[in-house]
Task: structure prediction
Amino acid sequence: MIVLGIETSCDETAAAVCEDGKLLSSVVASQEDHAKYGGVVPEVASRMHEKLLMGTVETALSRASVTKKNLHGIAVTRGPGLMGALLTGISFSRGLALGLKIPFLGLNHMEAHIFANFITFPELEFPFICLLVSGGHTQIWKVGGLGNYDLMGETRDDAAGEAFDKGARILGLGYPGGIEIERAARGGDSNAINFPRAFSKTDSIEFSFSGLKTSLLRYVENLGGEVPGDQISDVAASYQSAIVDSLLSKLRLAIDKTGIETALIGGGVAANRKLRERASNLFPDCKILYPDIDLCTDNAAMVAFLGEIYLREGKSSINSHCVVPNLRLSD
Ligand code: KG4
Ligand code: ZN
Result:
């Protein structure tokens, strides 16, 4: 079965082709226009998707050496994400599928982030724990199988990716913040500043990053509004460390509470090398997996891959045509 995947939930316009669980192509057109605003501007994102979608799909098809006529189905993200951005992807995909008379399926973006791990590790087996960390989500799920997801805990306020993005803005670094903080932190001392780790003394699985962000803001204000160049790497490394510690201490709890010793990390923040490195070192007794870097941040490969799984099960429901900006994984 050959499936085209389309992803337009935020600021990446992406298309990919998957055949029998194997990725044939994956194209991501990042929208550079948002960097100058220091964050994603929803209206700009929708317009850019509109402009980039056709070319991105054509490139994905040609790199996969398939034509539209070879496609057996189309899968697209229907939520969560920005309303206008999601609508461009859904409308485009529905039109294409209707014209080709093939099934069309709307998917949950966060579920696709979980399943991105199967592209990197085809032998992966259920059950497992999944730490989902992106720009809008920080959650720990117990995953028993396809469609069998139990939420173990999540953030009370900001998501981990949001903490990176806001922290980068406070430090005068670029957008997206995660990669900028990671870069700035290189060579820095992660113990230089003791930033807070919320809920570190509780045995509940929950996160909070808004206090951490405020703490960084106060720290920078006390320095007169700007961190001297020779201190930036220490500040960035300490801030990154506080986020990584918070995430991993709760992942440990989830593993201990369930006894499940396979844990995956998914979503844009899973691209963070410090998080990957520390997770592997901290849990020598467990199998800790994360997708290849380019499958962590938004992409359509994960959408095509998950779409093929559902289409094989004969799923392409009428509801899946609706865009749901705040779609939950357990909906
Ligand atoms: O999954 P994703 O690409 O989009 C959403 O679904 O939100 O995640 C985007 C988030 C952004 O907040 C970005 O700063 C963060 O992932 N991110 C990173 C890294 N690369 C992207 N955070 C930490 N380290 C990175 N290397
Ligand atoms: Zn994402």
